[in-house]
Design a protein that fits this description.
The protein contains 19 helices and no strands. The protein has 486 residues and is an all-alpha fold. Pfam families: MBOAT (PF03062).
């Protein structure tokens, strides 16, 4: 069930009204809504989700009672096996067949029937985090499966995050009957939902067919076409994924919950470290806390730290999809993280040896350096997105080859002229990205100005207009959210 459909808004409105009418039945209502929302995709996969989550719930309750490492290991193995079977079994088999030259399974039999349950990667990570946190005594396991089901399957973030931790969300779930909704929080929730809808329908869905055309035949692209298509995909995936996250956070506000923001204008990042503090924040923090740090983090020397970073990012890439293109994408981001940390340390040592310039000169140099760094890193990020979007490794390298084709410089001006309209679109989308950053930084002051300066009748007219716009938007053609496939 897509967020931008009439069916979803019907479920939302019914659940919202009943939620505030029957305070003591809130958990039951949310539990049923979670089931209906997920069952819209597949009743079978709902049964799988319920089963895996129930077993994880039972295992978590056993962890504090002794033999905790055994139960933790069992829980992690079960969840990883569930994810691996549905997501990676054919990937592993195909690669074994390539290496051995043997046909291991028939393609028209059982294996051809495997379908990836939507949201499985997200709920697997949440279940593992919950088990680990119980084991490390960060939280106490809940004694109610209903509360656990609401925690793990809360429908606004069920399919594509944000990835919630037990200590972040479970205390809120336990307080569900006592949660209240203030007018301020209601307005903020609706604002985030509308913001997300606008990004999804007006940007991501409109750019998607253009991007599809560029990536259809990578080997036939000119240099300018290749860069233009890659730029547009970068904005498509950002608008698509951040739209879902914004709406999820907004929907959480409507029910009194506080979900963490998942994106903070990532394309203004000056380096890989900053990018992963702004892009898919809950995933990057999960990778840090449950993979990078357990591997040793930065505690065992510089080389081991770099290996741990690369390993964590390789796993992040593989988490996104069972294709070598995602592995390469994760490796490239891991490599950029490693290179940046070496570069930052070297630059700091160099600057410490040089005389400090005057404050005004220092500010100018810092501003110019930051602007250049943002520009360069945006180009690097754009290159990595090719591996994320391409249909296969060969297509990705064909696309990259077109981006760096030396022959492209011969008539580069003409190529750019032929792509002028889409390049203008790229610049407009980047300007919108910057505008979003400014608005998010000044939300409180903007809201204060809006209520202080704009008369109530005018505000009401704007709100009514927005309702009509939303109705018009959800009637149009629908595209799945990109991250549903992960």
């Amino acid at each position: 069930m897509l967020f931008h459909t009439a069916e979803f808004f019907f479920l939302l409105i019914i659940t919202f009204v009943l939620y505030y009418l029957f305070r003591n039945a809130r958990l039951v209502l949310l539990g049923v809504a979670n089931c209906l929302f997920y069952a819209a995709a597949s009743w079978g996969f709902l049964g799988l989700f319920l089963g895996v989550s129930f077993i994880s719930y039972l295992i978590a309750r056993q962890i504090p009672r002794g033999r905790s490492r055994f139960w933790l290991t069992l829980g992690i193995i079960m969840n990883v096996a569930n994810l691996a079977f549905f997501k990676y079994s054919m990937f592993i088999i195909e690669n074994l067949e390539t290496v051995t030259g043997l046909t291991l399974v028939a393609r028209d039999g059982f294996w051809s029937t495997i379908v990836l349950p939507i949201g499985i990667s997200f709920y697997t990570f949440q279940l593992i985090a919950y088990l680990v946190d119980v084991y490390k005594e960060r939280i106490q396991p809940t004694n109610s499966y209903l509360r656990f089901w609401v925690f793990i399957a809360f429908f606004p973030h069920q399919l594509a995050g944000p990835i919630m931790r037990g200590h972040e969300f479970m205390p809120q779930v336990e307080q569900t009957p006592n949660l209240t909704l203030t007018p301020t929080h209601f307005k903020y929730g609706v604002y985030l939902i509308l913001w997300g809808l606008a990004k999804k329908i007006l940007i991501a869905d409109q750019v998607a067919p253009i991007v599809n055309d560029y990536f259809k035949s990578p080997a036939d692209l000119t240099m300018a076409e290749a860069w233009t298509g890659a730029y547009l995909f970068g904005f498509q995936i950002y608008a698509d994924f951040s739209a879902y996250s914004d709406m999820a956070v907004g929907l959480g506000y409507l029910f009194g919950y506080r979900l963490p923001m998942n994106f903070l204008s990532p394309y203004i990042s000056a380096n890989a470290t900053e990018f992963w503090r702004r892009w898919h924040i809950t995933l990057s923090s999960w990778i840090r806390d449950y993979i990078y740090i357990p591997l040793g983090g930065s505690r065992k020397g510089r080389i081991r730290k770099d290996v741990n970073l690369l390993t964590a990012m390789l796993i992040s890439g593989l988490w996104h999809g069972a294709m070598w293109t995602f592995v390469i994408w994760g490796f490239l981001h891991g490599l950029m993280l490693v290179v940046h940390k070496w570069y930052a340390d070297g630059l700091k040592k160099l600057l410490d040896r040089l005389p400090s310039p005057r404050a005004a000169v220092s500010r100018i140099i810092s501003w110019v350096y930051h602007a250049v760094a943002v520009f360069i890193f945006f180009q690097l990020t754009t290159i990595t997105w090719v591996f994320f979007r391409a249909e296969g490794v060969q297509d990705a390298f064909d696309y990259i080859g077109a981006m760096f084709d030396p022959a492209g410089w011969a008539n580069f001006a003409q190529q750019v002229a032929s792509q002028a309209s889409y390049l203008w679109l790229v610049m407009i989308l980047y300007a919108v990205h910057l505008l979003e950053y400014v608005v998010r930084r000044h939300e409180t002051s903007i809201a204060s100005w809006w209520h202080r300066r704009v008369p109530a009748p005018a505000r009401g007219l704007v709100y009514a207009l927005l309702v009509f716009v939303v109705i018009a938007m959800i009637k149009g053609e629908k595209h799945d959210f990109i991250y549903f496939q992960f």
